[in-house]
Amino acid sequence: MTTYYGDHNKAFVAVDCIVFGFDNNKLKLLMGRRKMDPGRGEWSLYGGFVNPDESVDEAAHRVLFELTGLKHIYMKQVATFGAVDRDPGERVISIAYCALINVKDYDNKLLKEHGVEWVELGKMPKLYSDHNEMVKKAVTMLRRRISSEPLSFNLLPDLFTLTQLQLVYEAVLGEEIDKRNFRKRIKQIDFIEKTELIDKVTSKRGAALYRFNKRMYMEEPSFKLK
Fold it and tell me: Rounded to two decimals, what is the model's pTM?
């Protein structure tokens, strides 16, 4: 360890993970009660401090893996939060990350292990420090990107119906979408493939199942839903 910058004040660097899932036609957020002071017992996002030997992205991946047990999931940096008084304990600068997962891929044993639960976005309580603002910024980012990036497929199983896909869009955007126009646009997108399989679980009449062809998207990533 060098003595450079020894005459300057030091700050802690942390990452906070905003993990969204889609369940029962609702956009949900993974959160739990804070297990440390300050703010013990308050609702909070899941996060951690950046270790000396890792970048902020590496720290976020580590924390997300600890929380979800999943690798190669969608993750984007949302913003940096560095208000002087954001943490009453020490000067802590936090980088917020947004992650999207399929709830069915999440091992429910981890809910109990980490003391977290899925909470509907519309029923989100007051969170510790500026975590509500982190979530607000993450939702704004998703709404800005969902019509030009294939984000919704991260929230769905590999096979899905067009109704499920539309419900994801509506949950993220917070508004209803015209069914006819939505389906017309979706059927014009080459990388959303119709399969020969039929969904007889969520659809009484039996609805066609679709899938996201990532290889085709990478070859021709142009995408605009609205």
Answer: 0.92
